[in-house]
Amino acid sequence: MSLEEPQPESTYVTDERVDYDALESLLGAHVLGRETHLNAEAFVIRPDEVQDVLTLLRDEAGFDYLSCVTAQEYEDRYESIYHLKKYADPTQEVGVVVPVPRDDPVSETATPVYKTAGWHEREAYDLVGIEYEGHPDLRRILLPETWQGHPLGLDYDQDKPQIVPYREHVNPIEGDYRDADSDTMFLNIGPHHPATHGVLHLKTVLDGEQVVDVDPDIGYLHRCEEQMCQSSTYRHQIMPYPDRWDYAPGGLMNEWAYARAVEDLADIEVPEYAQVIRTMGAELCRMCSHMLALGTFCLDIYGDFTAIFMYAMRDREKIQSILEDLTGQRMMFNYLRLGGVAWDLPEPREEFFEKTRDFLEDLPVATQEYHDLITSNEIFQIRTVGTGVLPPEAAKQYGATGPVVRASGVDYDVRRDDPYGYYDELDWEVAVEHGCDNYSRLLVRMREVEQSAKIVEQCIDLLEEWPEDEREIQSNVPRTLKPDPDTEVYRAVEAAKGELGIYMRSDGTAKPARFKIRSPCFSNLSTLGEMAEGEYVADLIASLGSLDIILGEVDR
Amino acid sequence: MNPAPLDAVLLPETIADLTGLGQFGILGDLIAAFVAAFFVGNLMLAMTGVAGPWAKRKITAAFTDRIAVDRVGPFGLLIIVASSVQLLAKELIIPEHVDRPAYDLAPIVIASSAMLGFAVIPMGSGIHLADPEVGLVFVFAIASIASVGLVMAGYASNNKFSMLGGLRAVAQNIAYEIPLIVTGASVVIFAGTLQMSGIVEAQQQALFTVAGIGIPAWFAIVNPFAFVLFVAANMAEIGRNPFDTPEAPTEIVAGYQTEYSSVYFVLIYLGEFLHIFLGAAIITTIFLGGPSGPVLPGIVWFIIKIWAFFLFTQWLRSALPRVRIDQMIEIGWKGMLVLSFANLILTAVIVGVFVA
Question: Given this model, what pLDDT does residue A189 score?
Fold first, then answer.
């Protein structure tokens, strides 16, 4: 769908849909069987042929985007699922299922084919316990190195105390050796550091002021979100959790990710009126989130509390107030319901519309102020233009999405390419920049705020005109939701940080058997090394700020 | 161009005469000098240590759309007391393996070096402690001692962020001290003297008259190019935005002051404020006509001028990004140095051809 790169005629696509039979013949003897997931067909392959199959799919069939790796344990086997998509058209999907026996859970790594698999497989190893042969760095990623057992495995004993003597803990200062021959310095940036936007630990090796190596150490904010969702019921109990992933606040977008996945899984219709409210709420959240990103990014470049940060917070506050009117909450909205939203627009409606319109009218003035203060400032430009460069190929390899990938010139936005909600009915554009640097990432966010304002404005008009008797906010959903057993779905929405995907497998009960969150920040953060190595430490901080990560979503 | 022999009375002499201490010979002079120094020192401390932090909060808040302190006392003025108690009562944490004498001395060196500089600044209304013939050189030399304190703090703290901050501070001070002094030298060419009172004296006559108002021959007006250069170099010297790389709070935590707490932190902070005000005092003296001004007494004009510069630094701090360390060094060596020498040579030629 990208305008810049016309799709080469592929034999594996007919009428913009993946031709799975052609793919099967491409893979030939590699295929052991086929599964049908709700989002796409999946091929079952042998654990020692992962790289061959993925290379074929990437190079021959054009699946250049490894969106997510899901690992799960069954009674008789472990399974890794590689969810493949195309940046050019994310509706073209295919799954690759790799079962391994329970007594010998070893599977070939996909890291040489997709770099993003590096972190995803580490997570699978950490939480589920599958070992990936040939993985360059198979360490735990979310839990501490000394953790016993794999918490999402079936025979994991939750009550077993994790007693680790102090001396066995990884000593973060261990790298602090004084080697006479060494020219480099090991530096711990974080977990307590003013620029890590949460609790992030960057193990950095410096040569003078230049970064030689950076290894993000995450997991400080791991709150077992997947496990909590797996022990909650679809209908009501899961919905509050997504608010806590990206609390910037990306709340409504996160909730939508869950809602979209379940609505597909259980085949629930959503009334159009509710879709418009959802679209409006999500775009308000996106603006909120981008304002915060802009403010904190400027903190990293300006230092301390500057005018920009306060101005950004001021404008964000206006949106928060609108969201508060709509949902009753400022951060943890819990406003979406399966099949709709929790309640209608606040009464009196005119007041709500007027308040939102006032904000939208003031927004261009504020945006101009930001451009005067930030983007047209020469010092800001020498700091950000050409620093933290992420070439488009590297961005795709690491599975980057959202403003990060759009600033690298990849025209990819789930809202347009895989439409949901009311987006395809509205008039708006995807913001793409080709600079690949910190400056472009900021520009993309600023342009996205403008586009979001455009969407909200159209939604407001629609909501105002909506016929009184068709204001249906929720469809009829069974009190207890039990999707058919053994249905699997992977669905994504465009959250503020990028593609937020949910994989769910039902086992016929009211709770999901596997709930996997594909966090955009997780994949985006893995590009940091690519951007920062060889640059100055100041640019490492700036690049980290430009990624706009929320550690709550990285660590889940 | 040769200023008249200076017969301005210095503050120690005034005190000696008023109290009759002068008749006790050298001992009396010494006591008078101490009293005078005590007075000037406290005046500066009252401005930097007491009014400074409060004003800084209020000024920054005004720039950034906030209200800032307003709970304790009128306009939040009593926050000064509360903050002092809070800061002084905090535990002084000294990390393991710090290099002890250097670690303890650094805050004192940073704070005291700036205090010494005020000795030669003419503040008007007879408040002037000493007026050596090499006053300008003395004040530059004293201000540079702070770099030693920064290195001591950075090295002795046994912390990598401190180390980086200390290295940055030195690199920055060397890169900007030379343009600073060379630009200062261009003023000396105009004034024909290094003596502070002589430099102020040289700025007193009217340069030209606009609508009956005499525009004074302040060197900022005579040579605005040198003024801008000097102010920019001075921003780097005192380490404020856009040149606050030695501290760079979001990059290297707090640079050389990362490991300092309680009283030591107060001293370092005070030292920084004193350096801003010392920078302001130097600029006031050599570019803004020192304490001269209509109607109001000299000391009031002097205070207005240094606070105006302080306001200017806070404005930049709220609005300007920070340059990267390599860019900052590049600007210093490749830009400022060349410009400052160009300015010096041009000034020398102009003064040599037209004035002499």
Answer: 86
> Is A234 found in the same domain as A104?
no
pLDDT of residue A10: 65
Structural element, H or E, at residue B45: helix B25-45
Residues A350, A491 within the same domain: yes
Mean pLDDT over A14-33 rounds to 80
ipTM score over 0.90, yes or no:
no
Residue where one domain finishes, among candidates A118, A133, A148: A133
A158 in any annotated domain: no
pLDDT in the model for residue B44: 84
> How far apart (Å, rounded) are the C-alpha atoms in residues B312 and A552?
39
Are B251 and A537 an interchain contact pair (Cβ–Cβ within 8 Å)? yes
Q: How confident is the model over A447-471, as pLDDT tens digits?
A: 999 999 999 999 999 888 888 888 8
Answer whether residue A300 is part of any domain: yes
**Cα of A377 to nearest chain B Cα, Å:** 8
Write the residue in A306, A383, A537 that is nearest to B323 by C-beta. A383
> Is pLDDT of B297 > 90?
no
- Distance in angstroms (rounded) separating the CA atoms of residues A523 and A11: 30
Task: In whole angstroms, give the CA distance from residue B277 to residue B314.
Answer: 12
Which SS3 state, helix, strand or coil, does residue A490 take? strand
Angle between helices B52-63 and B79-89 in degrees, nearest 10: 110
Average confidence (pLDDT) over A373-400 = 89
Q: pLDDT at residue B2 above 70?
A: no
Does a structural domain hold residue A178?
A: no
Find the largest Cα–Cα distance for chain A.
Answer: 80
* Residue A178 clears pLDDT 70, i.e. is over it: no
Mean pLDDT of A356-382: 89
Quote the domain boundaries for residue A491: 225-555
Asked if residue B172 lies in contact with residue B236, where contact means CB atoms within 8 angstroms, the answer is: yes
A241 HSE (CA, 13 A, CB side): 24
pLDDT band at B3 (very low <50, low <70, confident <90, very high): very low
Q: Does the structure show a pLDDT above 70 at A179? A: no
User: Cα distance from B185 to chain A (closest Cα, Å)?
Assistant: 29
CA distances from A477 to A266, A268, A504 (A): 10, 7, 19
Say how many residues make up chain A.
556
Whole-angstrom distance, CA of residue A120 vs CA of residue A522: 9
Query: A133, A149, A173: which is the final residue of a domain?
Result: A133
Mean pLDDT value across residues A264-290: 90
Q: Which two tokens stand for residue B203?
A: 């700025």
Domain match, A372 and A501 both: yes
DSSP letter for A305, please: S
3-class secondary structure, B99: coil
Chain A residues touching chain B at CB-CB below 8 Å: 185, 187, 193-195, 209, 298-307, 309-311, 314, 373, 377, 379-380, 382-383, 536-539, 541
Could you tell me the CATH number of the domain that includes residue A264? 1.10.645.10
Residue A444 has pLDDT above 90, yes or no: yes
Q: What is the mean pLDDT of chain A?
A: 86
Give A116-173 pLDDT, tens digit per residue: 998 999 999 999 989 898 888 888 888 888 888 888 888 888 888 877 776 766 665 5
- The verdict on residue A174 lying in a domain is no
**Short-list B342, B268, B244, CA closest to B111:** B268
**Residue B95: its chain A contacts at CB < 8 A?**
none
Q: Is the Cβ pair A379, B324 closer than 8 Å?
A: no
Interface residues of B toward A, Cβ cutoff 8 Å, are 60, 63-66, 160-161, 164, 241-242, 244-245, 247-253, 317-327
Total domains, chain A: 2
The answer to whether the CB of A182 falls within 8 A of the CB of A202 is: no
- pLDDT of amino acid B209: 72
Query: Where do we find the tokens 């109990």?
Result: A237
Phi then psi for B113, rounded to 5 degrees? Answer: -60, -35
